[in-house]
Amino acid sequence: MLHNRQRRRALIAGAVTLATAALGIGLSTQFAGAQATTLRAAADAIGKDIGVAVDVNKLQSNTQYRNTIATEFNSLTAENAMKWDATEPQDGNYTFSQADTLVNFAEDNGQSVHGHTFVWHAQTPNWVQGLNATAMRSAMVDHINTVANRYEGRVDSWDVVNEVVSDNNGAMRDSFWLRAMGEGYITTAFQTARAADPNADLYINDYSIEGDNAKSDTIYRLAQGLKSQNILDGVGFQSHLILGQVPSTMEANLQRFVDLGLKVRITELDIRLNTPADANELAQQAEDYRRVTEICAELADCSGITVWGLRDNDSWVPGTFPGTGAALLFNDDFSKKPAYTSTLNALGGGGTGEPTTTPATTDPATSTPPPGDGCTATLSVQSPWNTGATYSATVKANQALTGWRVTWTWPGSERISNAWSVTGTLTGATVTGANAAYNGTLAAGQSTTFGFNITKNDGSTASVPTVTCTPA
Fold first, then answer.
1. Is the N-terminal amide bond of 117 cis, ω within 30° of 0?
2. Residues 14, 8: Cα–Cα separation, whole Å
3. Where in the chain is the domain with CATH 3.20.20.80?
4. Are 393 and 450 in contact (CB under 8 A)?
5. How far is CA 124 from the centre of its chain?
6. Beta partners for 264?
7. CATH of domain 11-35+355-472
8. Parallel, antiparallel, or unpaired for β 201-206 and 157-162?
9. Which residue intervals of the chain bear CATH 2.60.40.290?
10. CA distances from 209 to 162, 168, 206 (A)
11. Within a 13 Å sphere around the CA of 97, how many CA atoms are in the beta-carbon half?
């Protein structure tokens, strides 16, 4: 059975293949070369997730943040919006506005969602922590059922339990969960999640288990038991690493979990260094990211990598480890670090991935839509560079729609090299696009987005043609 992520990739790949076939263009020649310039396209090409932890507030308020997430990543994880304190702050009082925003954005942009997290000793409301064993079990079961049922078929995988092993010689973490319910709380959580969403992949997630050590040995023991009950699909390795300290045993350690018949996933990758960073430290960081990415790329059962934040100033690291930071792939101004390039190359991409000019951060050029009865569409240039640009497009429904079509003609040498959340004939001077399977149904007043990268060979400023939108 295809999971949601695989179905979405099949739809996108099929749409691109139809478009290129209609024009007599070989997919392996034109599109494959262009796809190698983003993390997302390189990961798609090898069937891996490249994910990012998303701050939903920034997703809603920062256009460049939003478009970088859509362009560079094929998988999203809510940094905080799906944790217990965000979804059920009071007993039985559920709130899903931020979680819904993230899942809707992922669907609009053809991305999968890795859910984080059902059961954790942190960011769980006080009302849960003071319950007796019976009441705590009931609260856990209700919470997992409610959240998992809401996102069944929309969230592809879940961190079911998080950080259950202590840093002390591999002992179980002395959490309120363990004190009230014993180690069996872990099994209860997985049994509940499996019943609530049988098609989602279920992970146990922890930090400092990348190498072969006492803590990873305890996770291995837990994984054996859960796997024997068919309630565990994978192990998540958080990989909050320190510069120059990728464990030498990391590949062999991940392999032993694969040998159990499990998937592995790098779920929260960042690599911190002392700040301010110098060129040598950034080069070492790039090498460390390359090594971790290659380990996952070369393991058939590594489902993917999620970096824990977009830009360095989005990271949790400086607030927890003062004097350190610069742990991610993008600088604060959205420019790409050496670690971005090494990660892209380790995924099989090509080139530096670095624009030769600073991406636009304010006042992006925006087209003015012509009047239309059924829908209107706009294009905007988000990240221009000398030989290309990233565009964002918005389709707004003026009436209830079950599908939409857009068309425009490039005035110069601009040509779409890769696109997301749109199908059709995309590669020539005249573009005829249509909704993807998941973003065509809109109520009056609703909007959806799609995006693409272009190449242009004349060095001119990226143009913003007028787009015509019609109901399908």
1. yes
2. 10
3. 38-346
4. yes
5. 24
6. 235, 302
7. 2.60.40.290
8. parallel
9. 11-35+355-472
10. 12, 13, 7
11. 4
pLDDT tens-place values along the chain, 472 residues long? 344 444 444 444 333 333 322 222 222 222 333 345 899 999 998 999 999 999 999 999 999 999 999 999 999 999 999 999 999 999 999 999 999 999 999 999 999 999 999 999 999 999 999 999 999 999 999 999 999 999 999 999 999 999 999 999 999 999 999 999 999 999 999 999 999 999 999 999 999 999 999 999 999 999 999 999 999 999 999 999 999 999 999 999 999 999 999 999 999 999 999 999 999 999 999 999 999 999 999 999 999 999 999 999 999 999 999 999 999 999 999 999 999 999 999 999 865 444 323 333 334 444 444 445 799 999 988 667 667 787 888 888 999 999 999 999 998 889 998 887 788 999 889 999 999 876 788 888 888 878 888 888 766 778 889 999 999 8
Residue 118: closest CA among 95, 148, 98:
148
Catalytic annotation on 268? yes
Q: What are phi and psi of 155, to 5 degrees?
A: -105, 125
Q: Which one from 152, 268, 354, 414 is the annotated catalytic residue?
A: 268
Q: Output phi, psi for 408, to 5 deg.
A: -160, 165
Tell me which residue of 401, 418, 321 sits closest to 45, measured CA to CA. Answer: 418
Integer Cα distance of 185 and 137 in angstroms = 8
Residue 318, preceding peptide bond in cis (omega within 30° of 0): no
End-to-end distance of the chain based on CA atoms, in angstroms?
Answer: 30
CATH 3.90.105.10 fits 38-346, yes or no: no
Question: What's the CA angle centered on 183, arms 182 and 185, to 5 degrees?
Answer: 85
Tell me how far apart the alpha carbons of residues 35 and 401 are, in angstroms, rounded to a whole number.
Answer: 31
